[in-house]
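One record is set out below.
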Amino acid sequence: MHRSAWAATHDLPHTSIVVPARNCADELRLCLESIQLSDLHDFEIIVVDDASTDHTAAVAEEFGVRTIRLQECGGPAAARNLGAEAACGEILVFLDADVSIHPETLTTLVGRLDQDQTLTAVFGSYDDEPGAGNLVSQYRNLLHHFVHQSSSDDAMTFWAGCGAVRTAEFRSIGGFDAGYRRPAVEDIEFGYRLRNAGHRIALEKKALCKHMKRWRLWSMISTDIFRRGLPWTILIFKRRMLNDDLNLKVNQRLSIIFTYLLVIVRFLAVAQRRRLLIAHGRCR
């Protein structure tokens, strides 16, 4: 496996794994356990605790990994940037705290970058066995799996749930946009900038991870509209990039947004009608 002479001489890890985490102690434990079982051995782990109020930081320290604790919540984009700033490796691997990886996942991601020096970033895919068993979680996570597995290998953007990028290039374009204070489209925006700077990004469908998040119906709808759909639409018009790449084709993406908006409008209309009936004494 390729490794620079400087890194080998200074006995530094080839790969730095950055895990942003907030109030997800149980999921983080499973994530770190899966990393320990990885086929890859030459790496460091940096957990950035984004001002958690549970024992997330204690779990990270229990595993003996480098832990950065933030006093105020800055969001996953800022947390990843801080982890990347502290990293020593030539390659950065970003993993969400609520994913667990397969043993070969890291080797597959890092191997793609080591074997192809024209490639700057690569990301993986959710597997087809989601961690949460309820219907909404199964639907949501299997949809993500389908999208990843049916998308082009030559990607136009990036996914930070399970993705790797060369450290030098990550830093050269300024990392993630920390203006995204909550999980949104910060990885997509980063991928757009990376592509605009002339770098190649690949989707590696064999690099699998399991999503452990438990979705509920309203959280799924609100996420699709307010954290993904609307921010992505704004980003598309801002960057003037409308690509059929990841998270459904353009027409499907827009149809989902409009469907959710119609549901909200219908709900508001019913609520307004009920309010007027109450005001006129015709409804209790």
Q: What stands out?
A: The first strand starts at residue 15 and ends at 21. Confidence is low (pLDDT under 50) at residues 1-7, 247-252. The domain at 5-215 is CATH 3.90.550.10 (Spore Coat Polysaccharide Biosynthesis Protein SpsA; Chain A).
